[in-house]
Amino acid sequence: GAVVSQHPSWVICKSGTSVKIECRSLDFQATTMFWYRQFPKQSLMLMATSNEGSKATYEQGVEKDKFLINHASLTLSTLTVTSAHPEDSSFYICSASRMASGWGTDTQYFGPGTRLTVL
Amino acid sequence: GQNIDQPTEMTATEGAIVQINCTYQTSGFNGLFWYQQHAGEAPTFLSYNVLDGLEEKGRFSSFLSRSKGYSYLLLKELQMKDSASYLCAVMDSNYQLIWGAGTKLIIKP
Q1: Residues of A in contact with B99 (CB under 8 A)
Q2: Is the peptide bond between A40 and the residue preceding it cis, with omega within 30 degrees of 0?
């Protein structure tokens, strides 16, 4: 159990366009979902934490108007990169956990990631 | 500040044993995770320790000493497919995961 999917797995877009990435927990209800960005040869960088039904909490330095997160259900969260630019090119990874942050620890299960290339 | 330290890179021989260390300084502690990440892929969960001691899971074992702020991941009977980055992450008092930079493990025949 604990399978997380992401779609698309890779996307190439033109500068100025918006890209939506979906993250789904396939066999469990994910109260909390996390969005990470990873540049080549670097560790994961947490962008935001989202709990179902509430606004996402963004990490310092992450523009919430540029990276729109919607956690509409217990199995789906979306990240929209608005007006993408070449510097937004990165590997975006979502993860999901069963328990709400603050209610106890739970393992994060990662999606396969989405490689975004902005031309 | 919060800090996770692990070696940048390690090399080991196929069939041997390797130990990857992780030391941490965080505001509070709610468990330590080890993840494996192959190049170009997302991390996969390996282990979780919240109490002191050794947790064994097949070829992989993870150890924790909370008083020393120290953990290690032990990989036995190394296989070529074990070549990957190994990420140490600590959950702090706010239940936020603090990530180490990862240790790139290179397995040689």
Answers
A1: 43-44, 46
A2: no
**pLDDT tens, A22-39?**
999 998 888 889 999 988
* Averages of pLDDT over each 10 residues, chain B, 109 residues: 92 97 94 91 90 94 97 98 96 84 95
Long-range contacts formed by B5-11: CB under 8 A, 24+ apart: B5/B100, B6/B86, B6/B88, B6/B100, B6/B101, B6/B102, B6/B103, B7/B103, B8/B101, B8/B103, B8/B104, B9/B103, B9/B104, B9/B105, B9/B106, B10/B103, B10/B104, B10/B105, B10/B106, B11/B105, B11/B106, B11/B107, B11/B108
Is the CB of residue B94 less than 8 Å away from at least one CB of chain A? yes
Cβ contact, residue pair B48, A93, below 8 Å: no
Note whether B44 contacts A110, CB cutoff 8 Å: yes
Chain A: nearest CA to B39, how far in angstroms? 9
Q: Are A44 and B30 an interchain contact pair (Cβ–Cβ within 8 Å)?
A: no
